[in-house]
Amino acid sequence: MVTVSTTTRTAQDLTAQARDVLGVSRLTNHALTSWLHGLPGVDQVGCEGRAAALGTRSVKTTSKAWAIDTAIGMIDLTTLEGSDTVGKVRSLCAKALVPDPLDPTTPRPAAICVYGDMVATAKAALGDSGIHVAAVATAFPSGRASMAVKLADTRDAVEAGADEIDMVIDRGAFLSGDYLTVFNQIAEVKQACGTAHLKVIMETGELVTYDNVRRASYLSMLAGGDFIKTSTGKVQPAATLPVTLIMLEAVRDWRDLTGIQVGVKPAGGIKTTKDAIKYLVMVSEVAGDDWLSPEWFRFGASSLLNDLLLQRQKLTTGAYSGADYVTID
Amino acid sequence: MSRLDVRKTYKLYIGGKFPRSESGRSYEVVSATGEFLANAAMGSRKDVRDAVVAARGALAGWSGTTAYNRGQVLYRVAEVLEGRRAQFALEVASSEGLSARAANAVVDAAIDRVVWYAGWTDKIAQVLGNLNPVAGPFFNVSAPEPTGVVGILAPQSSSLLGLVSVIAPVIASGNTAVVVTSASRPLPAVTLSEVLATSDVPGGVVNIITAQTAEVATWLAAHRDVNAIDLTGVAGADGVDWAALEAEAAGNLKRVHRPTLLDGVPVEPDWTADPGLTRIRAFVETKTVWHPKGL
């Protein structure tokens, strides 16, 4: 069971906190721009090199078994399709409750991630299992809607019982340098979340540069995000190792700066156990072991769970497993 | 000045590509008289794993082609084999220690064997299927369907005729194959993979791994995503216990094609004999459908 403690923050609180961090008397777009553009630039070659180097670790036997179980416990099991039905969401919840019927010791994923209208269905199916329900909100995946609609979308999901809200930022505003708008939107959504956990999706595939990823990470944390998340999964490229590396550095430095710990969630394109283990190595090496729990690190994935289960079966039985031994999602 | 020898280091054939072994190992292949012939990749259990993934991926496409089309593809394989007969004859002669004349006869027989199975593809259903008489107003039809991914331990001594005689019946009915070659005589199999890659056989339908049989056979037999295994190649393989392999194969109720036994000891069958339908029949499943008759 994942324990996530979240305090209610109002938009005024967050603005006041941001003024303190920036050391300004009034939070303006100019102040935000100076602060974000004053962040050190990302060394692209160095970043990609380090991400690639961390991906070469060989993780075997007992370490691998631990990594697989840890990764399963960090999954936000996701279905975000226009064709989602109540039945599909229920069967996904059933899978979260019993990931591998052949082995009851298999851990459960951290959460189920669905569209807002499926929250009540997922909540009912999961009962008091402790598995969270995360809802995407704020006109996911494009984020192109008025603020009133985004806030209504968020409140709707929270009222339906969502434990976690995955919001998207306004990439248009971000890319045109209107950081204050992005800040205010995140802060207002955070307020609308109440006690629900807020994950801020930056859609790094649309942010063009690594410098922008770093700026968006800091902006999201400044505005009260409890998690920063790479992507919606609807845009290519989705989560990559270098982008996650930058985000992990950002949350590590943010805790040093403010004392507030923020989580990281790569989402989209993580399909194999090998990929997942690379991310775990990176979390440990870059952010530190404090982040190696479902409370602070999540995978947004759907097919990853099946591959982890196959690898787990291989370790348990000693024979390679096959698709006949996991569910078809 | 004499020209330097071009010493070849062959690779595996997995998913239509020619990768090196994941393990990075290779071994020296020598002729029947002990002369160096070439280096072959020494496949590992992870190469077997990758080959099974490739074979599983290719299954839907290959089993979904028409039987007629599979016959054309097999015939095309025979054509390309014919085009490279000189190379095959040399490799068979050096691997098996045969005279040029005897090696040519083996290549002829191998090509004829492929053509024979090419002719069978669209006749399997007529011979192995049936319209069953039932006491009711129903059509009751039984038809053979491919078993799925088939692991093949290829014969140790007959490096070309034996090899095509175990691969062709498996793919003729629409299965895909993971083949572990003869450990000491792998060169004709390597050349066959070059033939398969340049004929119309889709990548992944046949995957060829040169390896020490004892090292990889257990992994193939125990693999849960393999639907059947042909144990022909245990005859003459060092350190392989075919009964243990059959026990491993029972883990997911694989179809097992046992080796030919003589007084309880596996021996290689006579590859020049009429193959019959035994090997085709071993790797198909019968599906029976009831359909109401219009009255």
UniProtKB/TrEMBL annotation, chain A:
<protein>
    <recommendedName>
        <fullName>Deoxyribose-phosphate aldolase</fullName>
        <ecNumber>4.1.2.4</ecNumber>
    </recommendedName>
</protein>
<dbReference type="Pfam" id="PF01791">
    <property type="entry name" value="DeoC"/>
</dbReference>
<dbReference type="InterPro" id="IPR013785">
    <property type="entry name" value="Aldolase_TIM"/>
</dbReference>
<comment type="similarity">
    <text>Belongs to the DeoC/FbaB aldolase family. DeoC type 2 subfamily.</text>
</comment>
<dbReference type="InterPro" id="IPR002915">
    <property type="entry name" value="DeoC/FbaB/LacD_aldolase"/>
</dbReference>
<comment type="pathway">
    <text>Carbohydrate degradation; 2-deoxy-D-ribose 1-phosphate degradation; D-glyceraldehyde 3-phosphate and acetaldehyde from 2-deoxy-alpha-D-ribose 1-phosphate: step 2/2.</text>
</comment>
<keyword id="KW-0456">Lyase</keyword>
<dbReference type="InterPro" id="IPR011343">
    <property type="entry name" value="DeoC"/>
</dbReference>
<keyword id="KW-0704">Schiff base</keyword>
Automatic annotation (TrEMBL), chain B:
<dbReference type="InterPro" id="IPR016161">
    <property type="entry name" value="Ald_DH/histidinol_DH"/>
</dbReference>
<dbReference type="Pfam" id="PF00171">
    <property type="entry name" value="Aldedh"/>
</dbReference>
<protein>
    <submittedName>
        <fullName>Aldehyde dehydrogenase</fullName>
    </submittedName>
</protein>
<feature type="domain" description="Aldehyde dehydrogenase">
    <location>
        <begin position="22"/>
        <end position="234"/>
    </location>
</feature>
<dbReference type="InterPro" id="IPR016162">
    <property type="entry name" value="Ald_DH_N"/>
</dbReference>
<keyword id="KW-0560">Oxidoreductase</keyword>
<dbReference type="InterPro" id="IPR015590">
    <property type="entry name" value="Aldehyde_DH_dom"/>
</dbReference>
